[in-house]
Amino acid sequence: MSVVRPVPRPVPHPVPTVRCWRRRRLPGPVLASHHVTAAEVVAWLVIALVVPVPLLLWSGFAGWAWAVAAAVLVVTAGLLWADRVAVGEGYVAVRRLLRWRVLAADDLARVTARPSAHGGIVRLDCANGGHLVLHRGELEPGVEQALQTLVERDGLRRNAQAEQLLHLTHDEARCR
Questions:
Q1: How far apart are CA 80 and CA 40, in angstroms?
Q2: Who contacts 126 (Cβ-Cβ below 8 Å, separation ≥6)?
Q3: Which residue pairs, CB below 8 angstroms and at least 24 apart, start in 56-64?
Q4: pLDDT at 79 exceeding the cut of 80
Q5: How many CA atoms lie within 13 A of 6 on its CB side?
Q6: Which of 143, 45, 133, 129 is nearest to 95 (CA)?
Q7: Quick one: average pLDDT of 127-153?
Q8: What is the predicted pLDDT for the residue at 169?
Q9: Among 6, 62, 94, 113, fewest CB within 10 Å belongs to which?
Q10: Nearest Cα to 95, choosing from 156, 47, 154, 30?
Q11: How far apart are CA 37 and CA 84, in angstroms?
Q12: 83-120 confidence digits (pLDDT tens)
């Protein structure tokens, strides 16, 4: 006779919705992460190169103006280098405006998606009313697979677009 043991659930972060500044303060190891898309990198670096031009012209190409222009470029490059989305065993984290917004997997209630000009948007809704938004460009294969695991393991409700965008198997009972 075989003994069936329940699958252990990961220990969620003590607070269902957390904001933190550093990746090392996330509630557990990162299974998959995503950096900024290539199109965003090009756009922001062009902006970082163009914005200081009036300052350089006004200052007569002074040394301090070059230092300001270089600082703008270095800060922009550093911000673009940082992760944007991280998925762990018991959480999903999205970095917007320098801070990580972390949601515990146990607090997630529903996954919805809708089409957009850039391929679609996935919205992770919480039981307490909060939500996270992921853009299609942020769903790299590793992040997508980690989200599939979370959605399937926790039996989250979802719509047909979310099943299609995350390549989930159709489940009529969970689809709304």
A1: 8
A2: 16, 17, 103, 107, 108, 109
A3: none
A4: no
A5: 4
A6: 133
A7: 85
A8: 78
A9: 6
A10: 30
A11: 9
A12: 688 898 888 888 877 788 888 888 888 888 888 887 78
- DSSP assignment letter at 6: P
- Write phi, then psi, for 115 (nearest 5 degrees): -70, 155
Distant-in-sequence, close-in-space partners of 81: CB < 8 Å, separation ≥ 6: 35
Question: What is the helix (H) or strand (E) element at residue 57, kind and residue range?
Answer: helix 53-59
Q: Interior CA angle at 103 toward 99 and 104, to 5°?
A: 140
| 175: its two tokens | 């689809």
User: Longest Cα pair distance anywhere in the chain, in angstroms?
Assistant: 85
Q: What pLDDT shows up at residue 10?
A: 47
- Helix and strand counts by DSSP (H, E) for the chain: 5, 9
pLDDT tops 80 at residue 66: yes
